[in-house]
Design the sequence.
């Protein structure tokens, strides 16, 4: 199977969308670094200097359409950790804003932010999201209150069906392990192969899509992921 990097036509012919999933196992304090790493990986893969839309999905946030319609926040259950989580999100958002200011990213967006969370978030940033991407699960129509609020704030609402748990820790170990379908990078407890040992912890996943504008054809799409390994000593 051949793998081609880059794009076949001029950069101006494409809409490039990137979605970054910051995973719950990753430290809040590393989010800005993860943003830099993920965008750098996509730019290198596509051999471009910019992307058109960056959507960031933060851990611990989910949109609940039923809650929105009944007058709730429409994002997730707000608990005692919410103010602190919002502070970490705003800190990472500064990195997103910096990428936009540099011209590396065109439009910027969030995922799963309901009306109440947006009302808390928007006054605290000068770089407003142009997009809010929402997983409406089994609901095929966005809640009216959310649609009205987004229109008022000039935020485009998009829907998606991405998996809410995109890279579980056990799944990653299976992919990298020495099992029948594994890559053999990690050595298991009873393995005789040479490989890395230790606990592997997913940090982020980034999904990218390059669409040819005038034809609406996806030319290039894929994923990158990053993980930490607690002990990188090879198994002898």
Sequence:
């Amino acid at each position: 199977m051949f793998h081609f990097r880059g794009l076949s036509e001029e950069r101006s012919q494409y809409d490039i969308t990137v979605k970054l999933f910051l995973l719950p196992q990753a430290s809040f304090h590393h989010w800005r670094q993860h943003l830099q790493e993920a965008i750098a990986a996509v730019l290198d893969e596509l051999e471009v200097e910019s992307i058109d839309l960056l959507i960031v999905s933060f851990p611990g946030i989910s949109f609940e359409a039923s809650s929105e319609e009944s007058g709730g926040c429409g994002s997730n259950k707000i608990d005692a950790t919410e103010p602190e989580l919002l502070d970490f999100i705003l800190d990472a958002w500064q990195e997103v804003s910096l990428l936009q200011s540099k011209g590396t990213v065109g439009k910027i967006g969030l995922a799963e932010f309901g009306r109440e969370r947006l009302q808390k978030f928007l006054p605290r940033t000068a770089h407003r999201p142009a997009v809010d991407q929402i997983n409406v699960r089994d609901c095929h129509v966005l809640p009216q209150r959310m649609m009205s609020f987004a229109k008022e704030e000039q935020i485009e609402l998009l829907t998606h069906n991405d998996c809410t748990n995109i890279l579980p820790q056990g799944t990653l170990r299976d992919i990298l392990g020495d099992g029948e379908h594994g890559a053999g990078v990690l050595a298991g407890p009873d393995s005789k192969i040479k490989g890395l040992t230790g606990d592997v912890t997913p940090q982020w996943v980034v999904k990218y899509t390059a669409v040819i504008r005038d034809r609406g054809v996806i030319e290039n799409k894929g994923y990158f992921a990053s993980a930490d390994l607690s002990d990188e000593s090879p198994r002898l």
Summary: The beta strands are 14-22, 51-57, 105-111, 131-134, 156-159, 195-196, 200-212, 217-229, 234-235. The radius of gyration is 19 Å.
